[in-house]
Design brief:
Mean pLDDT: 85
Structural class: alpha/beta
Largest sheet: 10 strands, mixed
Helix content: 25-40%
Distance between the termini: 26 Å
Length: 353
Amino acid sequence: MRLLNPHPHPHSHSNPDRHGRPRRTACLALLAGAAAVLSPAVRAQQAAGAAPRPGAPLLDGPLKIVVGYAPGGASDRAARLLADSLKDILGVPVIVENKTGAGGRLSAQQVKAAGPEQNVLLAGNPAINVVAPLVAANVGYDPMRDFVPVSMLTRYDFAVAVGAAVPVREFGHLVAWLKANPEKANFGVPATGSLPHFFALMIGEAAGLKPQVIGYRGSAPLATDLLGGQIPAAVDTLDSLLPLHEAGKLRILAVGSGARLADAPKLPTLKESGLPLVADGWNALFAPASMPAAKVQVIARAVESAMREPALQAKFRANRMTPVAASQAQTVKLLADFRGRWEPVVKASGFRE
């Protein structure tokens, strides 16, 4: 699924929106109807018939974003980049908490259990919100029942990479080398049950291999083992692998995009390498179902506003991620489309935990 980034409005904290209002004032106007779940100061102003004053906190306390993977991975970086801008819009601290384990599922279980008074979000991705319930008997949550989509953050591409000690330079050479050394036919992925996991299985099947897929607790520990030679090859997000490729510490052999990427035009696609495979993924925020709808709307509009900021978009691109600015309604549709594409793939794999 390709998520297109809508054209951002050229505004910053002090520049006007398309209606001529300062960015924060425009955001406050959009959020005015949700005062019942906002901070006491904002509720008081709304009761008096006044719009929230600029600088007033929009929530009744800090907001926490729970990430299911170790610091340094794509989900973690996306959450931390957003948090820095979101705190200025909401007027409250935005905290990122890493809750690792079970391929990110422990983070979902934690957020599911949050009460309606808690300002907490899940940094979700396909592994947590699409794949897990399809491959495990009991993950401790229902992604459709227990969570509400809030906002998209990024879309990302996948890549196949090898450590510097592996004697191959092209993807076709890797396939031949693994066939000649079947005991080394191992692909590391950032998490068991993640999209890279299933993409690795798809790659192995299309290439005539039977690789063992080894899951890690995030991209950072996977990269450590890849660089150290503990695992010969990896399938991970391009943004996690590309800086190491550019530094000469590993080699990316192919990307999973439909065409060559502007940020990495020298990297061939899997299609060019002989495998008709294309895949990408996303990072998004989800609220627990217990969160009042008005509060979800407040946060969703604030996130969309943050993601339209040119400065924040530039930070995401500098981190090799494609920012996505989408409303809550657009997010719901995009996620539904993605689920419709990947559920058949996961089920057809026969993978079960």
